[in-house]
Amino acid sequence: MSWIKRHLITFAAIAVLIYMLVPNVIVAVFSFNDPAGKYNYTFNEFSTEAWTNPCGAQGICESLGLSLQVGVIASLAATALGTMIAFALGRYRFRGRSATNLLIFMPMATPEVVMGSSLLTLFLMLGVPSGRTAILIAHIMFCVSFVVVAVKARVATLDPKLEEAAADLGANPTQTFLRVTLPLAAPGIAAGALLAFSLSFDDYIITNFNASPSSITFPMYVWGASARGVPVQVYVIGTIMFLLALIVVMTGQLISSRRNRQVA
Amino acid sequence: MSEQSKGDLSLVALTKSFATFTAVHPLDLTIPQGSFFALLGPSGCGKTTTLRMIAGLEEPTGGRIRIGETDITDTKAYQRNVNTVFQSYALFPHMTVVDNVMFGLRRRGDKDAKAKANEVLELVQLGQVANKKPTQLSGGMQQRVALARALVNRPDVLLLDEPLGALDLKLRRQMQIELKRIQQEVGLTFIHVTHDQEEAMTMADSIAVMNAGRMEQLGDPATLYEQPRSTFVANFLGQSNLLRARVNPGGTDDMVTVRAHDVDLEVSREHLPDGVGDVWLGVRPEKLRLGESGGPNHLRGIVRDVSFSGVATQYSVEMPWGQELIVIQQNDGSNRATLGEAVTVSWAAQHGFALDASQDAEAGAELVDDHG
């Protein structure tokens, strides 16, 4: 009894972890299924068919490619823009600074349905055709806010004396930025970029409003497929994405723990 | 890229004003090449602003800064051959110690950066930690890295902004001696900003005392201490007893008599400012003696407080007009007074100094005890 009492927190933690990870486990397990009918809902027979031929379902790899492409471009653009905004907001006092701060938060607070439909209205009015360009513009727009938040938190902790020290030691403004400011802000920028990528890769609602029949992203493909029966390949790609995310997070943890151990 | 000018640093009417106040009133100062110079004053006196203007981190609103014949007023911080040791050290946390030290040399494309950096790290006795990160070092070691990072560039002027402020007392004493040794070894001009009068007096060849954006007095430590020219300097550098007095007419070439509370006292003419009638007559506590000394200057009073500290005893002696004089008596075997005893306090005429009585007698006194 007392043993249970002592380990209560451990049990609670395990229970929460199971709750969070069961869907991922199910996805991984069913990626090895050979479904009997068109629905991949009951485990029929073990098979590596989907793993050896992940592009086997029609259109799946085209949609994945588009999502990756949009994700990379959107996160790069949003990171560049967001980093500059974060430095401006974190470092300088100017007219309209608090208004800008507030407006930056707007896309995060606005319901996606509202944002998606209003963007569609805007694009129609301006004559921007639906499709990849419209999707990119929309993704960069909502990713910027998240990058700003991530980078601004980092910029706030940077000691401005370090930049003064660099200037004092003969570094011109460009050298100071490249050798001192940027390396120190890098963890925040990287976090912002990763966040932007996963938000863009994941987005369905806003994308759906602005897509054309030739621009089907991966989330749209999965949604469309679910009506007729989701191909096993979707489970394979889902598992791979999950593992990739896990590796990225674990690498980050490892680097920072090693850095901390050096410090101690 | 960097100015290779050598020579004295001169500030000509250097001024810094902000919208609501003036941090530094027009300041004229020449700091000889190779000297250890201290800018001393309480917080907010303008000493750090002056330092930052020399470094190029703050733009003056008026005046010029010259090193030798070269005017550097309009150059940027990164174009000046002036380096700073920051109060917070400002070491780059993402670089190793040796990379920190090489930073300045690399910006100039120095081929021997590594060798020079290691040499300077040896000078500050940190050769063994060259490849560690600054955060892995103690405060005292970080301080020495900051010093090495500035020294290695052999600047025309090396600026130290309260460099020992974050260290504990023992380490501070050690670093004071160390800094002085290094300065003598490398022969560079050091300008040291501090609020610690003892630190300034221990280390500097000459000191500029600053107060409220103005330079109060400039001189070597002994002159500042023995012949302060304002009540602020008299109180900020050590303690002073200040007696209200009026100059009597006449006197000899060397001596002048002043009348303080119906007692005639003598003071050297050279310690009396010209053309003043009402003065503060000042005497340092350790210059006062208990008992007659045969000279003309003696006052009678009653001992109100005695505190014995081993090497010396400090007395508080109440004068008939209520003022208490502080007397410090060395533990040299002379008789000690007891509480409530009526005593005579005396001093030699050349140990007194007179200051214009229009000044506040307490100026600077309240600022001293705030600091360690």
What's the structural blueprint in terms of helices and strands?
The complex is a heterodimer of chains A (264) and B (372).
Chain A: H1 2-6, H2 8-30, H3 49-52, H4 60-91, H5 97-109, H6 112-126, H7 132-157, H8 160-168, H9 173-202, H10 205-210, H11 218-228, H12 232-263
Chain B: E1 9-17, E2 22-31, E3 36-40, H1 47-55, E4 62-67, E5 70-71, E6 82-85, H2 97-107, H3 113-123, H4 139-151, E7 157-161, H5 169-186, E8 189-194, H6 197-203, E9 206-211, E10 214-219, H7 221-226, H8 231-236, E11 241-247, E12 255-260, E13 263-268, E14 278-283, E15 289-290, E16 297-308, E17 312-318, E18 324-330, E19 342-347, E20 353-356, H9 365-368
Parallel strand pairs in B: 3-8, 3-9, 6-7, 7-8
Antiparallel strand pairs in B: 1-2, 1-4, 4-5, 9-10, 11-12, 11-14, 12-13, 14-20, 15-19, 16-17, 16-19, 17-18
Helix pairs in contact in B: 2-3, 2-4, 3-4
GO cellular component, one term (chain B): ATP-binding cassette (ABC) transporter complex
Domain ABC transporter (chain B): 9-237
GO molecular function (chain B): ABC-type polyamine transporter activity; ATP binding; ATP hydrolysis activity
Characterization of this structure:
The complex is a heterodimer of chains A (264) and B (372). With 264 residues, chain A is an all-alpha fold. Chain A has helices spanning 2-6, 8-30, 49-52, 60-91, 97-109, 112-126, 132-157, 160-168, 173-202, 205-210, 218-228, 232-263. In chain A, 78% of the residues lie in helices and 0% in strands. The radius of gyration of chain B is 24 Å and the shape is elongated. Helices cover 23% and strands 33% of the residues of chain B. The longest helix of chain B has 18 residues, at 169-186. Chain B is an alpha+beta fold and 372 residues long. Chain B is built from nine helices and 20 strands. The chains are: A mainly alpha (264), B alpha+beta (372). At the A-B interface, helix 8 and helix 9 of A face strand 6 and helix 2 of B.
